[in-house]
Structures are given as structure tokens and as C-alpha cells.
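Form 7-S
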Amino acid sequence: MKDEEIDNVLKNATQPQQHPDPLVLARIGESIRPSMRPVRPLPPAWLMIVCIVLVCAAVSLAGAARAGFFGFERMDWFERLLVFSTITILTWLGAISFARQMIPASRHRISPGAQLALSSVALLAVFACLFRDYHTDHFVPAGIACLLTGLLHAIPADVLCWLLLSRGFAVNRVSAGLVSGTLAGLAGVGMLELHCPSFQATHILVWHTAVVPVSAALSAMLCWALPFRGRSNHR
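Output:
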């Protein structure tokens, strides 16, 4: 590059930038003004998390109240404490993750895949420690019935969680679907633990735990296959 060319570059860099035509700016403003509406800020994150947990608990309790609390009645106090405290903690963590998925620019301390793995492994560990009956009576028919029952209760939990955070915006809808499906699956597992009277270890380890990954996979696939528009109504 010649000295004259360098001088020209430096001279152009020091010259004031030409401002846009005010008429052009006015026309742009007029064109977007009809689409601008006042918005409300999102509720506090802690309130959204509490509401999500309450929704999942309500779905589990409502399903068990309709079908019967046979599983809860068979448990001793230690089994109840360990099983339902684990489900509550996992649901709380899932609610935190889902709320952050619906708030753009939020920090994600744990990935959706890790959230799913943590929930599944934690349930397997607790069930393996508590249930030691390794009979496999009616393994497939009873297991499929429990799997379908858990998934049927995961559906309303998933829908209600999305409606609860409908004013948020999922930047990555597949990731948000994976988290919400995991959360809804935990609601389904909670209902099964309250209701299912079978304490066979293989039944619980396989079919009850399977509700979580199956629900997560179905929710993520649905979010990927069905395009939707989130609304970002926070300031």
C-alpha cells in the first residue's frame, strides 16, 4: 500500500459519519409504530419456579386421588420420605431450568441433557435402594399400563407448564421441550409412586423410570416438529 493510500484511509476515518436522512428515519418509525404494544414484565423467577412445582404436584395428586393412593399406603415412612423428597428436589431443579429456558439470556447451569440424565439416574438409585422384590409377575402388561398412565399424566403437566410461561420466549425450543418433558415426566412418576401398588423392583426400575426419558423425548420431538412462536413480553 502506497503512502497516498494510507493517507486517504486515515483521512476518511477521521471524517464525521454522514447521518441518515431524517425523512427516512421518520418513515421507518411510522411503519413500525402500529406493531408496537405496551408489554408487561415477566413475574419474578422464584414465583414462576414455585408455580411450576405446584402445577406438577397438583397433577400427581389429582391423578392419584382419582385412581387411589395404593402405592403411598403400602410405603413405610422412610420410603415415603426418600421417594417423594427425591421427586420434589428433581422437580424443583427442572422448574429452575425450564424457567431459565423461557427467559432469553439466562444462565443455564445445567444442560437439558444433563438434567434428563440426572433425573433418571437419581430415580434409579433411589428405587434400587428401596425395592428388593425381584419377581417379574405380569412384567410387560403391568409395565406398559404404568408407562402409559405416567405419560397420560405427563401431558397435562407439560401443557400447563408451557401455558404458565407463555409470556416467555424459548430461544432453543427443542432444549426447552426436553426440559419441560423431563419435568412433566417427573409429575407422571410422582403419580405412579402414589398410586401403583406393585413394589417389584424391576417393574419400578424399568417402567416407572422410563416415563421421564420417554416424556422428555416426545416433548422435544413435538417442539421440533411443530413450529410455534414464543412471545417475549419482558422488559
